[in-house]
Design a protein that fits this description.
The protein is an alpha/beta fold and about 525 residues long. Among the domains are: about 100 residues, no CATH class; about 250 residues, Spore Coat Polysaccharide Biosynthesis Protein SpsA, Chain A. Helix content is about 45%, strand content about 15%. Helix 5 packs parallel to helix 6. The protein starts with a helix and ends with a helix. It is an enzyme of class 2 (transferase).
């Protein structure tokens, strides 16, 4: 009862407090929502004021004037942006006309003048883009494109590979013709009358040429700087020439279907059963399981270890359900050229891609596709440059153990080299091999037969595709150079043996091994004393 009576007495007070709160909130709301006067915003006239109508009209007029001014300002900004955009478009169009896109240059025979003008404009732009008149900023010391120098008889080059020398005659016809043309153009330029001097001009000849340097920027052109003897001692004439590279042009766009293109891998062999077992592991994984469009022909010389080799072949056939193989046995002295020639001619099916291979080769499924894509009957033969492995015991001698074969097959200068002096691994259609005359069967033993076949193709109208490939490896093995080889063959064999062991730096570490160990021993003694 007491609680109820207290609540009844408190209720009027509560209602009063609520009323006061509501009134306060209303006052605050009105104050907050009332427009400010003066210059910020005109106050709304009171509803019952005699000037209410005129006040509203004035406010609306002012708002309308503000919006109109804002719209005019926006229109001016849009017009300015349009003008700027038009100006930028004109600049871009002028630049495109001055430096046309290579892919947009069309040699339209219906408008030869326009096509020629576009081409000349592009070629001039190549001079401006190249490092002819001034240098460019480079990120590192290795980013500079080096020059090579030349005289009338010699070329001095940095990128020698394994088949070229630091100083040599320009053997390649394209390089020889290029340098002769450049010298002739320079001589012609020197002998061209200048129209100023009345004295009898000196006649320059190629014998006045002292030296030249040249370098090629792959996407721009080749720069030549040639020096000739001047009119007096210590005076010279310098001619700068530039051969700009033309625009990229589409030559062909075609679909290539290799689904039914079979490769016949031909391997000549004598003994070496353990190597053949390793080869068949690679052949099974890459050729049978991953590629599947492959035939294997083994031409075996003699009878020693023959049963073991046949057993390896038959076991692979059963376990992989592989029937596309041929085994040919010859009772005669081993000859690589004879084995490959017999294997190629033994094939009785349709025209097939031949891959001449050795038992110490490792290939990938990607290489087999490269083999197909770079051969074409009557047009192209493929001579890949394989990566030759160094002696693993030297490369990994400081390791706890030698890695597995798959882990060793990485392309680095410490692990191997591009075997650009070898021509034994090659892909070609059987029809081209037969038409060219096959191998020279008079060559016996090791080496020489592949070079003779390669030269036959070079002397024919077929295109020879010669390029390094990332999926073809020559596995290291100890090379034996037999006494019965001819002097030329023995020399080639020893050169190949020297190349196979290790890199220049690694061989140097072996030569100075004793000196290095002595130094380390002294360092250890010195550290103990301190």
């Amino acid at each position: 009862m007491m609680l109820r009576r207290g609540f009844i007495l408190f209720l009027p007070r509560l209602v009063g407090l609520l009323v006061v709160a509501c009134c306060s909130m209303s006052i605050v709301y009105m104050l907050a929502c009332t427009p400010k006067g003066d210059n910020q915003q005109l106050a709304l006239p009171r509803v019952h004021s005699p000037t209410a109508k005129e006040g509203y009209e004035a406010i609306l007029q002012e708002r309308e004037d503000q919006h109109r001014t804002y719209i005019i300002s926006l229109k001016k900004q849009i017009a300015q942006l349009k003008a700027e955009l038009q100006g930028r478009s004109e600049q871009l169009k002028n630049m495109q006309n001055q430096y046309p896109d290579p892919l947009d240059i069309q040699l339209d025979h219906s408008k030869p003048e326009k096509a020629q003008a576009n081409l000349l404009a592009f070629l001039r732009s190549q001079v401006d883009k190249a490092e002819v008149h001034s240098g460019v900023k480079l990120s590192t010391e290795y980013a500079a494109v080096p020059f090579e120098s030349f005289t009338l008889q010699k070329v001095y080059q940095l990128e020698t590979g394994l088949t070229r020398h630091p100083e040599e005659k320009p053997v390649r016809k394209d390089k020889r013709d290029e340098l002769i043309e450049v010298i002739e153009l320079a001589v012609g330029s020197l002998n061209k009358p200048d129209g100023v001097s009345k004295a009898k001009p000196r006649v320059y000849t190629a014998s006045d040429f002292v030296e030249g340097i040249y370098r090629t920027e792959k996407n721009k052109g080749t720069l030549y700087e040639l020096t000739f003897k001047g009119d007096a001692k210590h005076q010279f004439k310098k001619i700068v020439l530039f051969r700009p590279f033309g625009p990229v042009m589409k030559v062909k766009n075609e679909n290539v279907n290799m689904a039914d293109t079979l490769i016949n891998v031909i391997v000549p062999l004598a003994k070496r059963a353990s190597k053949f077992r390793q080869f068949m592991q690679n052949f099974r994984e890459m050729g049978i399981q991953q590629d599947g469009r492959i035939h294997l022909t083994v031409v075996y010389f003699g009878k020693e270890q023959m049963s073991e080799v046949k057993s390896i072949l038959e076991n692979t056939s059963k376990s992989a359900n592989f029937k596309n193989f041929t085994f040919i046995q010859l009772n005669e002295e081993f000859s690589r050229g004879k084995g490959l020639d017999v294997g190629a001619r033994f094939w009785k099916g349709n025209n097939v891609v031949l891959f001449f291979c050795d038992v110490d080769i490792y290939f990938t499924a990607e290489f087999l596709n490269s083999c197909r894509l770079n051969t074409q009957p009557g047009k192209k033969v493929f001579y890949p440059v394989l990566f030759s492995q160094y002696n693993p015991s030297i490369i990994y001698g400081h390791h706890d153990s030698i890695p597995s074969l798959e882990q060793q097959l990485i392309i680095k200068k410490e692990t191997g080299f591009w075997r650009d002096f070898g021509f034994g691994m090659t892909c070609q259609y059987r029809s081209d091999f037969i038409n060219i005359g096959g191998f020279d069967l008079d060559i016996k033993g090791w080496g020489g037969e592949d070079v003779h076949l390669y030269r036959k193709y070079l002397h024919s109208n077929l295109m020879v595709i010669r390029t390094p490939v990332r999926g073809l490896f020559h596995l290291w093995h100890e090379k034996q150079c037999l006494d019965e080889l001819t002097p030329e063959q023995y020399k080639m064999c020893m050169q190949s043996k020297a190349m196979n062991e290790a890199s220049h730096g690694q061989l140097g570490m072996l030569v100075f091994k004793q000196e290095i160990e002595t130094h380390l021993h002294r360092q250890k003694l010195s550290s103990k004393k301190t």
